[in-house]
Amino acid sequence: MAGILDVENLSVDYATPSSVVHALRNVSLTVNEGEVLSLVGESGSGKSTFALAVSRLLPPNATLLKGGRVLFRGEDLMRLKKPQIRQVRGTGIFMIFQNVFLSLNPLMKIKRQVTEAINVRSKRAAEKLDKRGEESEVASILKSVRIGDAEDVMERYPHQLSGGQNQRIMLAMALAEKPSLLIADEPTTALDVTTQAQVLLLLKEIREKSKMSIIYVTHDLAVAASISDRIAVLYGGMVQEVGPARQILSDPKHPYTIGLIKSIPSKAKNEGPLEAIKGAFSWDDVGEVCAFAPRCPLARDACSKGIPALNQLDKTQIRCINYGERYEQ
Amino acid sequence: MSSNSKSSLQIENVVKKFDVGEQGIWERLRREKRRHIRAVDDVTLEVAKGETLVVLGESGCGKTTLGRLIVGLEKLDGGRISYEGSEVKYVRDRGAVRGRLQMVFQDPSSSLNPYLSVSTCVAEPISKMGLRKQEVAAKVSDALKLVGMEFLFMARRTSDLSGGQKQRAAIARALISDPSVIVLDEPTSSIDVSIQAQILNLLVELQSLRDLTYVLITHDPNVAKFMADKIAVMYLGKIVEYGLPGDVLKNPKHPYTQALLASAPKLDGSSPEAIGGEPPSLINLPKGCRFEPRCPHAMPKCREREPSLLSRDNELVACYLYEEN
Amino acid sequence: MAFLRNIRKLASRPSSMIGLVIVVAFYGWSLIEGVLQAAGELLQMPSLGWVLLPYSPYQYTLTNSLLPPSLIHFMGTDDLGRDIWSRVLFAAPTDAMVSILVIAGGILIGGLVGYPAGYFGKSVDEVNMRVTDLFLAFPALILALAIEATLGRAVTYAIIALVAVWWPSYARLVRGEALKIKSMKFVDAALLSGLSNFAIISKHIVTSSLNTLISYATIDLGNTILVYSILSFLGLGVPAPAPEWGTMVAAGLNEFPQWWWYAVLPGVVIAVIVIGSALLGDGLRDMFAGEL
């Protein structure tokens, strides 16, 4: 399946002082051109690790296991050398983080940072822009993400602006560089609901205009619901269910997805307790069997015979013994 | 707000100011008045015993400050907070009553000392009551049992616990002194959604078991819907709407409440609606209604004077749209 | 103690292990030798302190003067034919004791000044920190020299002078920690539980700052030895013929560069200990950082 990004059998381990953590195990996903794929999961799901691995921004204690391939437009990113990676970054793949100060330089004025982004694109396209041209482009870019007083904001530093403004500026830089693939790692988690709505709408607009593909990492199913074409649900470092967003939300199949949806309060307390998933995620559960089984209401003996393989059901893939008794080798 | 004879917590015309800007020697010599913001500006609320009041709002609206004022962690700059008739005093004042008002904080990693054991943290509220070691250990064990944590956890360091476990320990700590009122400041915002459901269920269970009064602070309308007996919506230090969850959440009256609920993303995939403009700062408050700059229904009158809370259809709303002429 | 759980992380770094070996060897030896020396004084049997040494530190044979390092004299001999290595070993306990007492004193006074400054803020902070600044305004060595010159030549006075110079950096360190920790919600929770300010400081603020304090103090051990050696180099140490590292280096300079080992080798010993404590302290800091 040739999408703009084809991830095959990606596995990442983290080395901690006490043990080795299998953060991602044999994850295969495809992002098609112009599509928004949301990675939904909670702590331990591996969703952030996926985003970092694709952008080759993993921390030093992470190991990419052999056999994994990340094909961006057919080229394996894992095999690229540093200068080639720099080529891909920016106009190929752009990443925005939850903590804006990880992306924006606190010591540089906004104007300079957006200009940098423009320059990356110019170099790529071998365009040349003069100083005045640059300034007016920065202003128009800031206005396109609805930053009022663009001229004023240009001269400020990130810490003088709100979280929402900074996040929108990051999006502005994404616009400036015109990447083919945007990876957003929980960009709105730290923002207020009303600010989040602004950023989400902006993302949708950007996507309409530029046909950018987006990988959106979030723990919030509702956020995923509002912007995704496809949703991949992760648990214990593996994809548990992936398919068209509408389908996953209206007719979830995997017990974890069902449990997640039910955990979101939608009634009053006097109508009874919430249907919570019992127990909690533990790294001890991640091994040779289904990681969710200890918490699953539908668990049976077959679940401990091995790690269930992904079953194709119409347009969705589900990793659950209840939909096909096949196992990973 | 009608006075309920079973009132547990009375919050009357409460004001809290924070100083803004530096005051160095130069400013002091010129006797410049210190600029300040009113994080909580004339708030009046009542909570009946055994009930949950949800304070719904976004960051900067003053809800956290209000929560801290209720338990006495901040000093009042105006108004009065009383619990069952007696005044709540600032925590560092002498004679402040301990234990009857407790708080559960948002981030469990910072609300439990990571270097201490679970039992030391949970035992803290009763550590100064002169109880014997065995009595304290017994109470800690009981409290942990109440929140569904096993006895084994007592000796573990709090930094070893997961987010959900830490929050349970924090709740155990809040319960151990047998309080009547617990203020919960975004108790589930920092933990996974699947664990959030467990914690919310636990809180409801504990409330009926111990006849607890809750003030729950949150920005999440879903949590508000589940937990609330009454909802107060806050914006920039003021209550803009107050009523039953069924009314406030299903038929919001105040334009801000409407905007807040409309911007929340929903599982059915409908697009969140965004309001324009930036969340304003408390330093440059407009003269009239604080929401006016972003309000789609703004009228000239809104810019002149702040609307006060009006009673309308079993609710209280601070908006000129509902003024009877 | 619980903080030793991450000891594996420490063990995995070769530099930290080297530091650990150096520090443990130095203080271990100093403890044993120190006890022997003290016992010897008590029992009026000074030779007790020489039992573990290759040679007596005071034995001089002029015909053996200024012999280069060899198998029989590991660091060679000085101008009076005394074995330098034995003298180095003999002097070690003094430096060990000085370093520990100075750090302890620095932490004690620095803590009394810095914790309240950070926790209470406002006027307490202003007053305490201005006093700290006052002491910091003097170049450390000059202040130490001045104090010792006034008090007199003795190890005790050197320690007092060094403590006076050392405490301000601990005051600053501890104040920073207190500022950081007091904004943690567990301090609010402690207030709600009715703990007094003193209880909060001792139970929460001090315990939470221990990690930083320990790593910093470990690195500092080497620094105190260095400065104390400089003091004795400048002539303010224990009087001759008692061996003292700094004094030995000073005396050795007379024979430099031809009989270089006299000045250089004791200096190398000092350098090794400074580096060792720095490596260990660094490793401890990483170990603590990986803790939480």
Distinctive features:
heterotrimer; A: 329 residues; alpha/beta; eight-stranded mixed beta sheet; five-stranded antiparallel beta sheet; 11 helices; 13 strands; globular; B: 325 residues; Rossmann fold; 12 strands; disordered N terminus
Report on the architecture of this protein.
The complex is a heterotrimer of chains A (329), B (325) and C (292). In chain A, strand 1 and strand 2 form a beta hairpin. Among the domains of chain A are: 99-178, no CATH class; 252-323, no CATH class. Chain A has helices at residues 47-54, 82-88, 100-103, 110-125, 131-144, 150-154, 163-177, 193-210, 221-227, 245-250, 255-263; strands at residues 5-15, 20-31, 36-40, 62-64, 69-72, 75-76, 93-96, 181-185, 213-218, 230-235, 238-244, 311-313, 316-318. Chain A is globular and about 70 Å long. With 329 residues, chain A is an alpha/beta fold. In chain A, helix 4 packs across helix 5, helix 4 packs parallel to helix 7 and helix 7 packs parallel to helix 8 (193-210). Chain B has 2 domains: 7-100 and 179-322, 3-Layer(aba) Sandwich (Rossmann fold); 108-178, no CATH class. In chain B, helix 5 (133-146) packs across helix 6. With 325 residues, chain B is of the alpha/beta class. Chain B has helices at residues 25-29, 63-71, 108-111, 118-123, 133-146, 163-175, 193-210, 221-227, 245-250, 255-263, 300-304; strands at residues 7-20, 35-48, 52-56, 78-83, 86-87, 101-104, 181-185, 213-218, 230-235, 238-243, 310-312, 315-317. Chain B has an 8-stranded mixed beta sheet, sandwiched between helices. A 4-stranded antiparallel beta sheet of chain B has the order 2-1-4-5. By secondary structure, chain C is mainly alpha-helical. Chain C has one domain (15-30, 74-285): MetI-like fold (Orthogonal Bundle), CATH 1.10.3720.10. Chain C is 73% helix and 0% strand. Chain C is built from 10 helices and no strands. Chain C has helices spanning 7-12, 14-42, 84-120, 122-137, 140-151, 155-182, 185-192, 197-236, 245-253, 261-289. In chain C, helix 3 packs antiparallel against helix 8 and helix 7 (185-192) crosses helix 8 (197-236). Chain C is elongated and about 75 Å long. At the A-B interface, helix 8, helix 9, helix 10 and helix 11 of A face helix 6, helix 7, helix 8 and helix 10 of B.
